[in-house]
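Researcher: We're teaching a course module on how sequence relates to structure. For the next exercise, students receive a sequence and then see the predicted structure as tokens, so they can try to spot secondary structure elements on their own. Here is the exercise chain.
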Amino acid sequence: MKNVKIKNSRLFLSVFFLLFLLLSLIILSSCQVRNAFFKSDKNTLTTAINLNSGINNSSINSSINNSTDNSTDEGINTGISTTPETIFENSDKDKENKLVFFDYKKIKIDITTSIGVKIKNCNLVLDYFGNLNLLGEIENISTSGKTNLVLTFDFYNKNNEIIFSDTQPLTVNYLMVSTKIPFSYTIKDTDKFIDIAKIKIGINYKDYYKLFSGNAIARQEQFYYKNNILHIEGRLINIGESKVDNLILLASFYDKLDGVVFIKQGYLPKNNLMPQEQENFSIEVLLGKYTPDFTHYDFEVFFEDSIKMP
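Model: And here is the predicted structure for the students to work with:
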């Protein structure tokens, strides 16, 4: 009987040990499977992070290369290269590319004829700052004075369609017989002038039949160069019979084809003169990259009688 109990105990222990061993194997296998899945997820996550990091770095590098401005923290974190700065920069590059192929010298200038007033010596100049300047002169070839002078401009593309139109009053109120006045019209917007193929210029005015009793004339006395500056000096004289007011001296500078390339206003100590009174004037022109090349110049003086003009 005692031997039977011992055998049963041993059998029970054996079964218990087998169950324990089986349970241990199950637990161990479960842990290994979980670790395998964990490692797989970790590798997948690492790969995703690396890929995402590569995209971000590529976008950041693209953003840095395509923008002259410093990127913001938000732009770097999101990795978006199409920021407003980049869009504007790309737009600026498009304009620069268009300007490379833009030849303003091919733009046709069409002048509307007008009885008694002549538009002449017109020229287009692309200045150092990238502005397109339309210059020229208005000459009174009639037997009466002109007033209320207003220039009209119509800008056409290559399909002869109007891009835009504008007007510009002249800087003086009166243009007397046999006198001329320079004008300058500037287009700063590249989007406006880059498609221009033709410019039509006209002039509106009213006749003025009264004669001035004052008469201011300009006389050049000397010119010289100093410190890369052209100095032009002279004298204004009122040879008329009455006082003149609102004196303005304008100098036109021309290229070898007589096209106006730029305009300078002379310095006057005062803007009025009594009969037979004189005053000095001076004009200074800084020579260099900011000033278009010129071959000669001329100037004209404008004034009004001291008596209020109707």
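Model: If you want an answer key for the exercise: The helical segments are 2-66, 73-78, 84-100, 190-193. DSSP finds four helices and 14 strands in the chain.
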